[in-house]
Amino acid sequence: MKQEIEHYTNRAGGKGTMHIERLLTPKEMGSHVKMYARVTIDVNSSLGYHKHEDDTEVYYILEGHALYNDNGMERELKPGDVTYTPNGKSHGIKNIGSEPLVFMALILLK
């Protein structure tokens, strides 16, 4: 069940605008899933570097190109790439392409 799209500016100290379309309600996700969503980061925008406490997160890149910061190590991402951030670790992602960056995000509670 598709939910309303949420819009954020400068999320987690990032730059610009991002949009989160939560695809399941909390009831549908159950007690171990915090979020399952399609995330869009606008051109020249980013989700700031942040630490995960009591959860883990996975990204699956659908469209666009990104610079991903995985605990201080940066790498470029393209469609089909997957990231994993375990509990207690940090990450951030920046759209470095000329089109919106779109990815699936799954946050699982510890």
CATH architecture: Sandwich
Average of pLDDT: 95
The computed structural class is mainly beta
Assign the CATH class: Mainly Beta
The CATH superfamily turns out to be: Jelly Rolls
What do we call the CATH topology? Answer: Jelly Rolls
Pfam family, one: Cupin_2
Organism: Amedibacterium intestinale
GO molecular function, one term: metal ion binding
Domain Cupin type-2: 38-105
What does this structure look like?
This protein is mainly beta. It has a single domain (about 5-110), classed as Jelly Rolls. Helix content is about 5%, strand content about 60%. The strands form two sheets. The protein has a six-stranded antiparallel beta sheet with strand order 1-2-3-10-5-8, with no helix packed on it. It has a four-stranded antiparallel beta sheet with strand order 4-9-6-7, with no helix packed on it. β6 (about 65-70) and β7 form a beta hairpin. It is globular, with a radius of gyration of 13 Å. The two termini are about 25 Å apart. The model has no long low-confidence stretch (mean pLDDT about 95).
Summarize the structure.
With 110 residues, the protein is mainly beta. The protein has one helix at 26-29, and strands spanning 5-9, 17-22, 33-41, 46-51, 55-63, 66-70, 73-77, 82-85, 90-95, 101-109.
Structure keywords:
1 helix, 4-stranded antiparallel sheet, mainly beta, Jelly Rolls
